[in-house]
Specification:
about 160 residues; mainly beta; six-stranded mixed beta sheet; 3 helices
Length: about 160
């Protein structure tokens, strides 16, 4: 029968051959067209509250792009980690901003402009006494991949 012929057929190497898959050209390239997964894998101090994420295009006031974000997400924390999958993204250059909203008030709490909650950015730029520039956190979306962001706490 047709069903048996399908089940007994050899695999189509056009979609399953590992030699046909390629890694991103650059570690700062995130594959687009479908999904970007942001995995917040280090530095989350507690499972209380949520992680808030904003995916920002250029020229939107990064890191505070608010209503101009292409996507936002609120993620539960489990065992010090959180993940988000953002689908149907257009290829382009973006930056990711995240923070640990530990008290659930919907904003990054600061004292004299210094974050009192954990925060992080795509490409994990080094600490500076200012917010990072878009160019320091920019990733190029060209297809599906994962961006790992380590949270930083100053207090």
């Amino acid at each position: 029968s047709g069903k048996r012929a399908f089940l007994n057929a050899s695999a189509d190497r056009r979609t399953t051959a590992s030699d046909r898959l390629s890694a991103p050209i650059d570690p700062n390239v995130v594959q687009a067209g479908s999904i970007i997964s942001a995995a917040l894998i280090t530095g989350i101090r507690s499972d209380s509250g949520v992680i808030r994420l904003a995916l920002c295009p250029p020229d939107t006031g990064f890191p505070d792009c608010k209503a101009k974000a292409v996507r936002t997400a609120e993620m539960a924390i489990h065992k010090g980690a959180a993940t988000a999958s953002l689908a149907d993204l257009a290829p382009g250059t973006y930056a990711v901003s995240v923070f640990h909203d530990a008290n659930g008030n919907g904003k990054l709490d600061t004292f004299l402009g210094i974050p009192r909650e954990g925060y992080g950015f795509s490409r994990n730029p080094p600490f500076r006494p200012r917010a990072p520039r878009f160019s320091e956190t920019a990733i190029s979306l060209q297809g599906a991949a994962t961006e790992r962001i380590a949270l930083r706490y100053l207090f």
